Amino acid sequence: MSAIVGAENWTAAVVEATNSNNVIAIGGLNASGTVQIRLLTYGITQGGTVQIARGQPHSAILYEDGTIYSANTMVGSGTITFSTLTSQEAEGTFSFTAVNPDKQQSRVVTNGKFRVRFK
Q1: What is the average per-residue pLDDT within 21-45?
Q2: Which tens digits make up the pLDDT trace of 36-78?
Q3: Cβ atoms 98, 76 nearer than 8 A
Q4: pLDDT at 87
């Protein structure tokens, strides 16, 4: 799992992924434990792109140096694309703009890629 967070390259040292009743959760944590990205989709049964937007159940979260930024049904936006999706694995891309309402700040995550096996 990798992405560009702001202008910095990010790579996950630890990645976990689950698919339970078509609820897919994918998360990665960098080697220093300071930046984590989590993706969550609902009701996905085949490849394609889902929107992170108002009224959509999907979400992405960026934990960066103790601050949480979210893209979900209320704030932020983005996409998660599954180029491969089976009961055992998933591969795809993601990008999102996540917001921390308390700090009134946003962070952009681009060029995200994942290739995971479900536990």
Answers
A1: 97
A2: 999 999 999 999 999 999 999 999 999 999 999 999 999 999 9
A3: yes
A4: 92
CA gap 112, 110 in Å, rounded: 5
Joined tokens for residue 58 = 């999907």
Could you tell me the pTM of the whole model?
A: 0.96
The most distant pair of C-alpha atoms in the chain lies apart, rounded to whole Å, by: 39
Number of domains in the chain: 1
DSSP the chain: -EEEETTEEEE-SEEEEEEETTEEEEEEE-TTSSEEEEEEEES--SSEEEEESTT---EEEEEETTEEEEESSSS-EEEEEEEEE-SSEEEEEEEEEEEETTTTEEEEEEEEEEEEE--
The encoded tokens of residue 117 equal: 């096996």
Tell me the residue range of the domain where 79 lies. Answer: 2-117
